[in-house]
Amino acid sequence: MKGRERQTARIPVAAGLVLLMIAGACAAGHLREKSRGTVIYFGMNAGSYWDVPTGSCYEVIDTAIRRFEEKHPGVSVEYTSGILKEDYPEWLAEQILLGREPDVFMIPSGELDILASLGVLKDLEPLMKKDVEFDRGDYYPAAWRYGNIRDTQYALPYESVPTLMFVNKTLLDKEGIDMPGEDWTWEDFLAICRQVTKDTDGDGVVDQFGCFDYGWKEAVTSNGVQLFEKDGTASYFGDFRVESAVRFVKELNGVNEGYVVTAREFDQGKVAFRPFAFSEYRTYKPYPWRIKKYSDFEWDCVKLPAGPDGTGQSGLDTLLMGIGSRSSQEKLAWEFIKELCYEKETQLHLLVASQGMPVLRDAVESPLLKQVLGNDIPGNGNMDVDVIRQVMEEAGETPNFRRYSSVMNQADGEISAIINGERSIDSGLLKLQREINSLLRQ
Amino acid sequence: MSRERIITNLQQAVYILNLAAVCLVAGSMAVSVFRIVDAMEAEKFLSLLRVRPWNPRTIVIASISGYLCLVLLSCMGQLWEHKGKCTRILIIVGEMLLCIGTTVAMNMNYNGLVLLVVADMVRGQKGSRQKLILGIAIVGLYTIVNYNLTGGYFNMIPWESFLTAYNTSTQAFLKGILSIFSSMNLVLFILYMTMLIQGEYRERERIQNLNQQLEEANRKLKEYAAEAEKNAEMRERNRLAREIHDTLGHALTGIVAGIDASLTMLDISPEATRQQLVKIGDVARQGMTDVRRSVSKLRPDALEKLELEDALVKMLKDTGAASGAHIRFQNRVKPFKFQEDEEEVIYRVVQEATTNAIRHGHADRISISISKEDGWLTIEIQDNGIGCGQVEEGFGLKHMKERLSLLDGTLEYGGREGFHITARIPVRWGEERQ
Q: Which of A295, A358, B298, B431 is the most buried (most CB within 10 A)?
């Protein structure tokens, strides 16, 4: 009996020893972590988020960090530099798997839903509720809603890029056409395109075109349609406004008589219009990049033309920042994300040092915008600041549900076929809506 | 090998086997994560999941520590088997929580730990109500930790997702090993349960056996007692018969023979007849003496040797000396001489009452007085003991009553402060001997 008891006691003693060792190791790790002081980890990619060349991608962030560290003595913010934008999603996923995701990080484009449903992102609602200074109404609605999944705010917008319409002023001048106004419509757009599409050198081949890269998506947005239910459970491709947008694009493509306009012709100044991201405008308009591209002609940007049922809304691409749900420094992380996304100084700095638009109304409406846009642009080219503000205010919501990009790919294929005349418009769109809806319900 | 030894060994095998399974599942999950990160497939892997997996280090540490705690608790449960119901319930609840925790840490990819807890639960259970609770607990526990039932609800990540980090043959190998572990665990569990149930069955059988033996012994004892009583009765009857034969029979035979002779001689010689009658008288007297002696063998010793008063005084003195009680005896009846049966009853009543006062009343002062009034002899016994409100008539009181009723006497008793007994006997004064 004694032998048995000794034998039975051997196992718990061994188990206890191993447990003690594990506890010791954990405690040592914890102490080492603690000895480093309070550190907020920040995750961001190098280079521009907007795929344009940039010289100082860390400038705004570094300044914000300095300001934050001054406000919170004893706290330091660290980030890993040099992660390219294309590597950033993988880097973030790795950090998440290894349990080392940053406290505050940029959310890779289109991944908000995945990260939120995986439970990686902290629900910001309680933090916002506690923070009396914070008012969500300070943000432009489209930018704000982009960080919202199923009525829960998981991320704050940091920087937005609206889509504008690039106008080749030299070409229009040559044809004796005025710059389109703020309230131009599809008809105006189509009329100009018809007018400029011609054979200029008389070789029998059309070599001057109305527009490049203007597709059904731009048309749909500028006609004021939301293609999807916000939570991604239903689509509205059968809407009459979508139908009129597709009909319009088909008509527009018809102007070129089957010729497919390429980027080369656009770069050579043979195309009058092209949808253009604000970031590109900010990059190529000022020196030094202005000599790299589009230097042979005068150009500027205007609002997208409005469809019969819309006001010429444009899509808004927004860079989001989120807080890791495992962050041990919830309060500091919130303060830091606010420093980036809610601090007017940071947002104003974006105007100077970045290529996007601030997401705070206060920042966009400051006189700095006019000054910056004016300074940037030597010569006569000068964009109307009010247009930018209007575009930001009216911008259509970009869906952010998980399957958005795959669903849009499928829709793109189908609608291209419709535009090419392979299918009838109304029945084709209804069929597409049915297909997409059944896909979304899966 | 003894049964206990086998059970101990089985238990150890279960502990080690489950440790191996926990290490395999948690380890493979952690290694998978590292492999996925090394292969730069983290984004793809995450996009296939519905929930972010735990940090690989946390998975390993939580699974193994949780399991070791479970083992620790299980061993403690065995060592403290006799510490009472509360400890047992606490340990079982702790084991269940640890089992759920560890299984969740492994994303419910191994649920063999339930068997370990179930074995511990079954080992100490008693009673049918506990059996019901136990059954519910087992079903509940199994349901909670079963991936197919609740894994989806708890957002667990199936092992297969982690295994995608390995090539097909490694996947098959790992799955094979885990399935071997699971099967072996099940086999060991069944063996263990069989041993446990067998042991319980044997124990029950042994107890049943012992019970039977006890019943048999009891029955025999009763028989012996009845027989002994019968024997004693028989012996007494024989003695009485012998006594009657030797004394009364002898005397009566002599008397009958003498009377017959006297009848014959009456007319011939009245003198001889007279002498004969004197002889017959002697024989009858002798017979009476003999009968008296026989009967006196049933009387108290003291009464045999002493007069009633002396006998009482001696008995009370002895009792007082033995118990330390102060006994006052007052007799107002002179002369103090009665019929034998009456004397015996008086003696016995005083003796019983005194004994009761000391034994039940814890009295240290007892006063006894005997008086005569209107042909009734009254014995009063008063003590200073605890007395009692509600008297429960015991054997002693009942006996006294019975003895008194044989002489048409009465008995009254009661009293809260001390106990008071009054016995009254209608003495046959007329037959009183001078």
A: A358
pLDDT (average), residues B31-38: 92
**Whether residue A400 is found in the same domain as residue A428:** yes
Quick check: B51 contacting A, CB < 8 Å? yes
Is B173 within a domain? no
Q: Do residue B153 and residue B236 come from a single domain? A: no
- Cβ pair B45:A117 closer than 8 A: no
| pLDDT band (50, 70, 90) for residue B127 | low
Q: Does A22 touch chain B (CB under 8 A)?
A: yes
Length reported for chain A = 442
The secondary structure element, H or E, covering residue A262 is: none
User: Of B242, B265, B296, which residue sits at a domain end?
Assistant: B296
In chain A, the residue whose alpha carbon lies closest to the alpha carbon of B45 is: A93
What pLDDT is recorded for position A1? 43
| φ, ψ at A296 (rounded to 5°) | -85, -5
**Interface probe, candidates B43, B50, B120, chain A, greatest A C-beta count within 10 A:** B43
Q: Rounded to an integer, what distance in angstroms lies between the CA atom of residue B92 and that of residue B89?
A: 5
Residue A283, both tokens: 């990059």
Cβ B75–A15 below 8 Å, yes or no?
yes
> Is the confidence at residue B18, as pLDDT, over 80?
yes
Q: Which residue has the higher pLDDT, B33 or B324?
A: B33
Question: Which residues 61-90 on chain A approach chain B with CB closer than 8 angstroms?
Answer: 89-90
In a domain, B216, yes or no: no
For residue A90, what are its two tokens?
């993988």
Chain-chain contact of B52 with A96 (C-beta, under 8 angstroms): yes
Cβ separation of A120 and B5 shorter than 8 Å?
no
Q: Taking CB atoms and an 8 Å limit, are A12 and B71 in contact across chains?
A: yes
Structure-block tokens of residue A384: 């109307």
pLDDT(A284) > 70: yes
The pLDDT tens digits of the residues spanning A299-350 come to 888 888 998 988 888 888 899 999 999 888 899 999 999 999 999 889 998 8
pLDDT of A38 strictly over 60 = yes
**Percent share of chain B, pLDDT over 90:** 20
- pLDDT at A379 > cutoff 50: no
For every residue of B118-140, DSSP letters joined together read HHHHHHH--SHHHHHHHHHHHHH
For residue A338, the model assigns a pLDDT of 92
Q: Do A11 and B12 touch (CB under 8 A)?
A: yes
Residues spanned by the domain of B75:
3-166
| Top-confidence range, A286-295, B96-105, B352-361 | B96-105
Do residues A163 and A276 make contact, with C-beta atoms less than 8 angstroms apart?
yes
Which tokens go with B338?
A: 């009665």
Listed in sequence order, the residues at least 6 apart from A105 whose beta carbon sits closer than 8 Å to its beta carbon are A42, A43, A44, A92, A321, A322, A324
Mean pLDDT of A13-35: 88
A123 and A240 belong to one structural domain: no
Question: How many domains does chain A fold into?
Answer: 2
Residues A311 and A325 in one domain: no
Split into its structural domains, chain B has a count of: 3
For residue A407, which of A243, A238, A234 has the smallest C-alpha distance?
A: A234
Separation of alpha carbons A22 and B60, rounded Å: 11
**Do A363 and A418 sit in the same domain of this protein?**
no
Do residues B22 and B110 share a domain?
yes
Rg of the Cα trace of chain B? 47
- Please tell me whether residues A151 and A169 are part of one structural domain: no
Residue A356 is part of which domain span?
38-160+319-387
Would the CB atoms of B43 and A89 count as touching at under 8 Å? yes
> Which of A15, A94, A99 minimises the CB distance to B71?
A15
B365, β-bridge pairs: B326
Q: Is the model more confident about A376 or about A87?
A: A87
Last residue of a domain, one of B275, B296, B317: B296
* Closest alpha carbon within chain B to A121: B52
Same domain, B94 and B115: yes
